[in-house]
Amino acid sequence: MRISEILRLVMLNLSQNKFKVILTSVGIIVGSATIMMVLAIGTGGKLEVAEQFKNLNAGAIDISYESNATEFGSGGRDGGGGMPNMGGGFGGGGGFPSGGGMPDMGNGMPDMGGMNDDRMNQEKIVLSTEDMEDLAVFVPNIADTTISYTTTTEVEGGDLDSASSYTIAGVKSNYMSISNLELAMGEFLSDENDENKEKYCVLGYSIAKEIFGSVYEAYESVIYIDSRPYVVRGVLSEMGSVASGISPDTTIFIPYETGIKYITGEDVSPTITVIAEDVDEVDIVKENIESVLADSYANAEFTITDAGSKMEAASKSNETLQILLVAMAVIVFCVGGIGIMNVLFVSVKERTNEIGILKALGCSQKDILMEFLMEACFMSFIGAVLGVMLALGITPIVESFSVRVELSISGGLLSLAFGVITGTIFGFYPAYKASTLIPVVALNQE
């Protein structure tokens, strides 16, 4: 029998049982849609992770401290009221403290490059610019370091009808380069602005548009932060991501010392960001940072995280989601395949006489096998096509839940391929059983 004749028989049988074909293909429809959505959500997740961390330096290490009132006795940098163990520390040798033993008071305390009595006697641990400078001096293989903090306060000006709360970030002049930020207009904050505690600010892209309507209108305008006037020195380009824990699009940046003086006072919890020269040595740099901080603040536990770990954690979460969705898609495909197998077994039973007639007319075992196998493939293909259409239809619904979906042609083609393969695998055995029927027995079957 020619292929064209087999195809005609297949199309005739399918057209006469449209409803059964659709019901049989439900599993394939759901499986195909799931496969396409898995790939789309997986791709979207990867792009989301990449964008979220695109302005983070791969060697960036963030150091912060969350206060614990029960952790320290009378306060102080050594956490216990005594002086830290300086023996074998930074003085003279430039190495790291060996730790252990009681504090060696000796005849005095070595010069720690700015670690003065005020820092030693502070009541609670607050990372400072002096800590940042210590890390820059005593930790090797550091390319740059900066310190920043965030707070929320009332802002007025521009097109705002009333005061609104915005995120204010106190930063140093090198924050822009460390966080890979870009300016749409103007300049970033300078060292002079910080040293003189000047009232300048740089607006994030979204805030500039929200307050002034455009970047152009925002530049060199004046806004009131905590009722004090600040001149807009520059506006950042749209970033759409997070830099060192700060979302630049929705943040107002001011000089670090200006914020301390006029907004927060000393009650801040800053984050020190260190950039390792070599990404491969981030772990070593983190260990050295811990050593320096341990010498300054004995028994204190700091939170030290690096951008690479954050990206890895986010990527693993995305991969876990993908694996779960793929597993679900495989299960659905198997259920759909079993459905096709059952329907074909019933079809073989119902069409036993037809198979006997075809064999009596000279159709070979191969022809019967091809006919039923092609029916299975066509049913699964139809289901796969409907599944791709279903995926396209539900994409807006999925995106409404803030899930990024990146549909692709390759994803659609893969869904179709999975559907056809499923139909072929699960349809083979019923087709084989039909092809092995003995013509005389088949003709006498009632």
Could you give a quick summary of the protein structure above?
With 446 residues, this protein is of the alpha+beta class. The protein has helices at residues 3-15, 18-24, 26-52, 117-120, 129-138, 175-178, 191-195, 205-212, 215-218, 256-264, 282-296, 307-350, 352-360, 365-399, 409-435, 439-444, and strands at 60-64, 142-157, 164-171, 183-186, 200-203, 222-225, 228-236, 251-255, 271-276, 303-306.
Keywords:
446 residues; 15% strand; alpha+beta; elongated
Q: Report the end-to-end length measured between terminal Cα atoms.
A: 26 Å
Structural class computed from helices and strand pairing: alpha+beta
Which of globular, elongated, flat, extended, rod-shaped describes the shape? Answer: elongated
Number of helices: 16
Strand fraction: 5-15%
Share of helical residues: 40-55%
User: Average pLDDT, to the nearest integer?
Assistant: 79
Give the SSE string: HHHEHHEEHEHEHHEEEHEHEHHHHH
Oligomer status: single chain
Largest sheet: 6 strands, mixed, barrel
Number of DSSP-assigned strands: 10
Strand order of the largest sheet: 2-3-8-5-7-6
pLDDT under 50 segments (min length 5)?
69-122
Taking all Cα atoms into account, the compactness measure Rg is: 34 Å
Secondary structure layout plus pairing:
Elements: H1 3-15, H2 18-24, H3 26-52, E1 60-64, H4 117-120, H5 129-138, E2 142-157, E3 164-171, H6 175-178, E4 183-186, H7 191-195, E5 200-203, H8 205-212, H9 215-218, E6 222-225, E7 228-236, E8 251-255, H10 256-264, E9 271-276, H11 282-296, E10 303-306, H12 307-350, H13 352-360, H14 365-399, H15 409-435, H16 439-444
Parallel strand pairs: 3-8, 5-7
Antiparallel strand pairs: 1-9, 1-10, 2-3, 2-6, 2-9, 4-7, 5-8, 6-7
